[in-house]
Helix-turn-helix domain-containing protein (Streptomyces ureilyticus), 293 residues
Amino acid sequence: MLGSMTSNVPLNELGEFLKKRRSELSPRTVGLPETGGPRRVAGLRREEVAQLASISTDYYTRLEQGRMQASAPVLDTLARVLHLDDDERGYLFQLAGKTTTRTRRHGRQKVQPQLQRVLDDLTATPAIVQGRRGDILAWNALAAALVTDFSRIPEKHRNYPRLIFTDPAMRSLYADWKASAQIAVAQLRMEAAKYPQEPRLIELVGELSTRDQQFAQWWGDHKVAARTVGTKTLNHPVVGELVLDWDTLTANTDPDQHLTVWTAAPDSPTHERLRILASWAADQNMAASSAPR
Protein backbone atom coordinates (compact mmCIF):
# COMPACT_ATOMS: atom_id res chain seq x y z
CA MET A 1 0.00 0.00 0.00
CA LEU A 2 2.59 2.52 1.08
CA GLY A 3 4.98 1.27 -1.58
CA SER A 4 2.79 2.68 -4.35
CA MET A 5 3.73 6.15 -3.07
CA THR A 6 7.46 5.60 -3.01
CA SER A 7 8.49 3.94 -6.30
CA ASN A 8 7.79 4.86 -9.93
CA VAL A 9 5.39 7.56 -8.81
CA PRO A 10 2.99 8.58 -10.27
CA LEU A 11 2.62 6.00 -13.08
CA ASN A 12 2.43 3.02 -10.73
CA GLU A 13 -0.14 4.90 -8.67
CA LEU A 14 -2.18 5.54 -11.80
CA GLY A 15 -2.03 1.85 -12.68
CA GLU A 16 -3.19 0.80 -9.20
CA PHE A 17 -6.02 3.31 -9.39
CA LEU A 18 -7.17 1.97 -12.78
CA LYS A 19 -7.03 -1.63 -11.53
CA LYS A 20 -9.03 -0.84 -8.43
CA ARG A 21 -11.71 1.02 -10.35
CA ARG A 22 -12.18 -1.72 -12.99
CA SER A 23 -12.37 -4.36 -10.26
CA GLU A 24 -15.50 -2.64 -8.94
CA LEU A 25 -17.44 -2.76 -12.23
CA SER A 26 -19.37 -5.67 -13.65
CA PRO A 27 -19.90 -6.32 -17.38
CA ARG A 28 -23.58 -5.56 -16.91
CA THR A 29 -22.75 -2.15 -15.40
CA VAL A 30 -20.92 -1.06 -18.55
CA GLY A 31 -23.28 -2.68 -21.04
CA LEU A 32 -21.32 -5.84 -21.84
CA PRO A 33 -23.05 -9.24 -22.01
CA GLU A 34 -22.70 -11.60 -19.07
CA THR A 35 -21.07 -14.86 -20.20
CA GLY A 36 -22.33 -16.80 -17.20
CA GLY A 37 -19.01 -18.58 -16.73
CA PRO A 38 -16.57 -18.11 -13.85
CA ARG A 39 -14.33 -15.03 -13.98
CA ARG A 40 -10.71 -15.22 -12.86
CA VAL A 41 -10.64 -11.58 -11.78
CA ALA A 42 -13.10 -9.38 -9.94
CA GLY A 43 -14.83 -6.82 -12.08
CA LEU A 44 -13.87 -6.09 -15.67
CA ARG A 45 -10.99 -7.71 -17.51
CA ARG A 46 -8.26 -5.57 -19.05
CA GLU A 47 -9.37 -6.51 -22.55
CA GLU A 48 -12.92 -5.43 -21.75
CA VAL A 49 -11.76 -2.00 -20.59
CA ALA A 50 -9.60 -1.69 -23.70
CA GLN A 51 -12.52 -2.68 -25.92
CA LEU A 52 -14.82 -0.09 -24.34
CA ALA A 53 -12.13 2.60 -24.62
CA SER A 54 -11.31 1.68 -28.25
CA ILE A 55 -7.64 1.13 -27.48
CA SER A 56 -5.49 -1.98 -27.73
CA THR A 57 -5.24 -4.38 -24.81
CA ASP A 58 -1.45 -4.00 -24.92
CA TYR A 59 -1.76 -0.20 -24.60
CA TYR A 60 -4.08 -0.48 -21.61
CA THR A 61 -1.90 -3.17 -20.01
CA ARG A 62 1.12 -0.88 -20.23
CA LEU A 63 -0.88 1.86 -18.49
CA GLU A 64 -1.79 -0.43 -15.60
CA GLN A 65 1.78 -1.62 -15.31
CA GLY A 66 3.08 1.94 -15.10
CA ARG A 67 5.14 1.54 -18.26
CA MET A 68 3.78 4.43 -20.29
CA GLN A 69 2.04 7.79 -20.13
CA ALA A 70 -1.53 8.24 -21.35
CA SER A 71 -2.77 11.06 -23.54
CA ALA A 72 -5.54 13.40 -22.34
CA PRO A 73 -8.14 11.97 -24.81
CA VAL A 74 -7.43 8.43 -23.61
CA LEU A 75 -7.72 9.52 -19.98
CA ASP A 76 -11.02 11.19 -20.74
CA THR A 77 -12.32 8.01 -22.35
CA LEU A 78 -11.11 5.82 -19.48
CA ALA A 79 -12.79 8.12 -16.96
CA ARG A 80 -16.07 7.63 -18.83
CA VAL A 81 -15.61 3.86 -19.28
CA LEU A 82 -14.77 3.34 -15.59
CA HIS A 83 -17.67 5.56 -14.44
CA LEU A 84 -15.39 7.92 -12.51
CA ASP A 85 -16.98 10.84 -10.68
CA ASP A 86 -15.58 14.37 -10.91
CA ASP A 87 -13.15 13.91 -8.01
CA GLU A 88 -11.85 10.61 -9.36
CA ARG A 89 -11.49 12.02 -12.87
CA GLY A 90 -9.49 14.97 -11.51
CA TYR A 91 -7.30 12.57 -9.54
CA LEU A 92 -6.68 10.45 -12.65
CA PHE A 93 -5.59 13.46 -14.68
CA GLN A 94 -3.46 14.76 -11.85
CA LEU A 95 -1.56 11.50 -11.67
CA ALA A 96 -1.10 11.11 -15.41
CA GLY A 97 -0.14 14.74 -15.95
CA LYS A 98 3.04 14.44 -13.87
CA THR A 99 6.17 13.52 -15.76
CA THR A 100 8.45 13.88 -12.73
CA THR A 101 7.77 13.33 -9.05
CA ARG A 102 7.85 16.17 -6.58
CA THR A 103 10.70 15.70 -4.16
CA ARG A 104 10.79 19.24 -2.72
CA ARG A 105 10.49 19.33 1.04
CA HIS A 106 7.81 21.65 2.31
CA GLY A 107 8.42 23.81 5.34
CA ARG A 108 6.05 23.83 8.28
CA GLN A 109 2.92 25.77 7.40
CA LYS A 110 1.59 28.72 9.35
CA VAL A 111 -1.97 29.95 9.14
CA GLN A 112 -2.50 32.83 6.71
CA PRO A 113 -3.11 36.12 8.63
CA GLN A 114 -6.42 36.75 6.88
CA LEU A 115 -7.70 33.30 7.82
CA GLN A 116 -6.65 33.88 11.43
CA ARG A 117 -8.67 37.11 11.45
CA VAL A 118 -11.72 35.24 10.14
CA LEU A 119 -11.32 32.66 12.91
CA ASP A 120 -11.03 35.36 15.55
CA ASP A 121 -14.25 36.99 14.34
CA LEU A 122 -16.26 33.75 14.27
CA THR A 123 -17.51 33.47 17.82
CA ALA A 124 -20.78 31.61 17.11
CA THR A 125 -19.49 29.30 14.36
CA PRO A 126 -16.97 26.47 14.83
CA ALA A 127 -14.11 26.75 12.34
CA ILE A 128 -10.63 25.35 11.76
CA VAL A 129 -7.86 25.89 9.21
CA GLN A 130 -6.26 22.77 7.77
CA GLY A 131 -3.06 22.58 5.78
CA ARG A 132 -1.27 19.84 3.89
CA ARG A 133 -2.04 16.27 5.00
CA GLY A 134 -4.98 17.60 7.02
CA ASP A 135 -2.68 19.27 9.56
CA ILE A 136 -4.69 21.51 11.89
CA LEU A 137 -3.05 24.95 11.69
CA ALA A 138 -5.56 27.06 13.64
CA TRP A 139 -8.99 26.91 15.24
CA ASN A 140 -11.42 29.06 17.19
CA ALA A 141 -12.78 28.49 20.69
CA LEU A 142 -16.03 26.95 19.51
CA ALA A 143 -14.23 24.42 17.29
CA ALA A 144 -12.17 23.34 20.32
CA ALA A 145 -15.39 22.94 22.33
CA LEU A 146 -17.04 21.05 19.48
CA VAL A 147 -14.27 18.61 18.57
CA THR A 148 -11.40 18.65 21.07
CA ASP A 149 -8.95 21.02 22.73
CA PHE A 150 -6.41 21.08 19.92
CA SER A 151 -3.96 23.04 22.08
CA ARG A 152 -3.46 19.95 24.25
CA ILE A 153 -2.31 17.90 21.25
CA PRO A 154 1.43 18.08 20.41
CA GLU A 155 1.86 20.13 17.23
CA LYS A 156 3.46 17.26 15.29
CA HIS A 157 0.36 15.13 16.02
CA ARG A 158 -2.17 17.89 15.34
CA ASN A 159 -3.58 16.26 12.21
CA TYR A 160 -7.23 15.56 11.44
CA PRO A 161 -6.93 12.09 9.84
CA ARG A 162 -4.61 11.02 12.64
CA LEU A 163 -7.05 12.34 15.24
CA ILE A 164 -9.98 10.46 13.72
CA PHE A 165 -8.13 7.15 13.77
CA THR A 166 -6.18 7.42 17.02
CA ASP A 167 -8.46 9.32 19.43
CA PRO A 168 -11.17 7.00 20.85
CA ALA A 169 -13.36 10.03 21.63
CA MET A 170 -13.77 10.65 17.88
CA ARG A 171 -15.54 7.31 17.45
CA SER A 172 -18.14 8.46 19.99
CA LEU A 173 -18.36 12.01 18.68
CA TYR A 174 -19.18 11.13 15.06
CA ALA A 175 -22.57 9.43 14.75
CA ASP A 176 -21.32 7.80 11.53
CA TRP A 177 -17.64 7.47 12.35
CA LYS A 178 -17.00 5.05 9.48
CA ALA A 179 -18.27 7.45 6.81
CA SER A 180 -16.30 10.36 8.30
CA ALA A 181 -13.13 8.26 8.50
CA GLN A 182 -13.51 7.05 4.92
CA ILE A 183 -13.87 10.64 3.69
CA ALA A 184 -10.72 11.60 5.61
CA VAL A 185 -8.81 8.77 3.93
CA ALA A 186 -10.16 9.71 0.49
CA GLN A 187 -9.11 13.34 0.99
CA LEU A 188 -5.65 12.22 2.11
CA ARG A 189 -5.37 9.98 -0.96
CA MET A 190 -6.21 13.00 -3.15
CA GLU A 191 -3.42 14.90 -1.42
CA ALA A 192 -0.99 12.07 -2.16
CA ALA A 193 -1.45 12.72 -5.88
CA LYS A 194 -0.15 16.27 -5.40
CA TYR A 195 2.75 15.38 -3.11
CA PRO A 196 3.48 11.66 -3.61
CA GLN A 197 6.95 11.75 -2.07
CA GLU A 198 6.35 14.27 0.69
CA PRO A 199 8.14 12.68 3.66
CA ARG A 200 5.62 13.65 6.36
CA LEU A 201 2.73 12.40 4.25
CA ILE A 202 4.48 9.06 3.70
CA GLU A 203 5.21 8.86 7.45
CA LEU A 204 1.58 9.58 8.32
CA VAL A 205 0.21 6.96 5.92
CA GLY A 206 2.72 4.41 7.19
CA GLU A 207 1.86 5.07 10.83
CA LEU A 208 -1.90 4.88 10.34
CA SER A 209 -1.63 1.80 8.10
CA THR A 210 0.29 0.04 10.87
CA ARG A 211 -1.94 1.17 13.72
CA ASP A 212 -5.36 0.73 12.14
CA GLN A 213 -6.45 -2.13 9.89
CA GLN A 214 -9.44 -0.15 8.59
CA PHE A 215 -7.20 2.72 7.49
CA ALA A 216 -4.95 0.27 5.65
CA GLN A 217 -7.95 -1.30 3.91
CA TRP A 218 -9.50 2.02 2.89
CA TRP A 219 -6.16 3.42 1.74
CA GLY A 220 -5.82 0.40 -0.49
CA ASP A 221 -9.27 1.04 -1.99
CA HIS A 222 -7.91 4.17 -3.75
CA LYS A 223 -11.09 6.18 -3.14
CA VAL A 224 -10.55 9.93 -3.58
CA ALA A 225 -12.46 13.05 -2.56
CA ALA A 226 -11.86 16.78 -2.60
CA ARG A 227 -12.58 19.06 0.34
CA THR A 228 -15.95 20.56 -0.57
CA VAL A 229 -19.21 20.50 1.44
CA GLY A 230 -21.25 18.00 3.42
CA THR A 231 -23.32 17.28 6.50
CA LYS A 232 -22.26 15.50 9.68
CA THR A 233 -24.12 14.40 12.77
CA LEU A 234 -22.22 14.64 16.05
CA ASN A 235 -23.11 13.21 19.45
CA HIS A 236 -21.62 15.89 21.67
CA PRO A 237 -21.06 14.97 25.34
CA VAL A 238 -22.29 18.39 26.56
CA VAL A 239 -25.14 19.48 24.27
CA GLY A 240 -26.23 16.22 22.63
CA GLU A 241 -26.99 15.65 18.95
CA LEU A 242 -25.77 18.25 16.46
CA VAL A 243 -26.58 18.12 12.73
CA LEU A 244 -24.03 20.40 11.11
CA ASP A 245 -23.41 21.48 7.52
CA TRP A 246 -19.73 21.94 6.74
CA ASP A 247 -18.17 23.98 3.97
CA THR A 248 -14.56 24.46 2.92
CA LEU A 249 -12.96 27.64 1.58
CA THR A 250 -9.46 27.72 0.07
CA ALA A 251 -6.99 30.56 0.62
CA ASN A 252 -5.91 32.21 -2.64
CA THR A 253 -2.55 33.06 -1.13
CA ASP A 254 -1.90 29.41 -0.23
CA PRO A 255 -4.09 26.80 -1.97
CA ASP A 256 -2.89 24.23 0.56
CA GLN A 257 -4.74 26.02 3.37
CA HIS A 258 -8.46 25.40 3.79
CA LEU A 259 -10.93 27.05 6.16
CA THR A 260 -13.65 24.62 7.26
CA VAL A 261 -16.75 26.01 9.00
CA TRP A 262 -19.64 24.13 10.61
CA THR A 263 -23.05 25.83 10.54
CA ALA A 264 -26.67 25.00 11.35
CA ALA A 265 -29.96 26.23 9.93
CA PRO A 266 -31.36 29.25 11.85
CA ASP A 267 -33.87 28.37 14.57
CA SER A 268 -33.01 24.68 14.30
CA PRO A 269 -32.31 22.62 17.46
CA THR A 270 -28.64 22.43 16.44
CA HIS A 271 -28.43 26.21 16.06
CA GLU A 272 -29.69 26.66 19.61
CA ARG A 273 -27.35 23.95 20.93
CA LEU A 274 -24.37 25.68 19.31
CA ARG A 275 -25.28 28.84 21.24
CA ILE A 276 -25.41 26.80 24.45
CA LEU A 277 -22.05 25.21 23.60
CA ALA A 278 -20.50 28.63 22.94
CA SER A 279 -21.72 29.86 26.35
CA TRP A 280 -20.41 26.72 28.04
CA ALA A 281 -17.02 27.12 26.35
CA ALA A 282 -16.81 30.77 27.43
CA ASP A 283 -17.52 29.75 31.03
CA GLN A 284 -14.86 27.05 30.86
CA ASN A 285 -12.28 29.48 29.48
CA MET A 286 -13.12 32.07 32.12
CA ALA A 287 -12.80 29.51 34.90
CA ALA A 288 -9.46 28.32 33.52
CA SER A 289 -8.08 31.87 33.26
CA SER A 290 -9.12 32.78 36.82
CA ALA A 291 -7.81 29.58 38.41
CA PRO A 292 -4.71 30.06 40.65
CA ARG A 293 -1.45 29.06 39.04
Q: What stands out?
A: The longest strand covers residues 240-251.
